[in-house]
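Justification of computing resources. Each target in the renewal requires a structure prediction run like the one illustrated here; the chain below, 174 residues long, is used simply to show the kind of job we budget for.
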Amino acid sequence: MKTKTRYVLCGLLAQGPQTGYQLKKLIDERFKAFWNESYGQIYPELKSMLEDEWIEIIDKKNNARKNTIYRITELGYFELKKWMEIKPEKESVRLEILLKTYFSSLTSKKTIESYLIQFKKEHDEDLKQLIQLRKSLDLEKTEQKDLINVINFGIRVNEAYLHWCDENLTKGLI
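Resulting structure tokens:
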């Protein structure tokens, strides 16, 4: 069974050749509200994709992994398109902050408040980064509409997180 990591990487490589480092950066910037990948997932998957001929190396400088540029092959495009036709699985959400809020009676109110403040701070920063990224894009360019759509989702998710934090912190719901 192929991992979702493989399809994320294929999709990004379908937009143009990239290094593993560049792929990680794109995932962190564009998908942060709904997807993450670690270097420990990316590089082994790139190696496997090379072996399966879904991608190829087009440039390798100084024999360094981070300087290796990959591009998708025809087989990679074919497999990516096949995957795109498969109905998405139901998403699963795992937010530890919600577990700790649910079990908040087992600790002090101050502890939970500190977690909420940190959660709010992190998502406020994510929101600012996404808004800045959206401002940097040309809203009229057709090829950027998919990216803008995904960024708008991330903005709404982070706004919802912040609203939830504010409710809990100001109305004493915890």
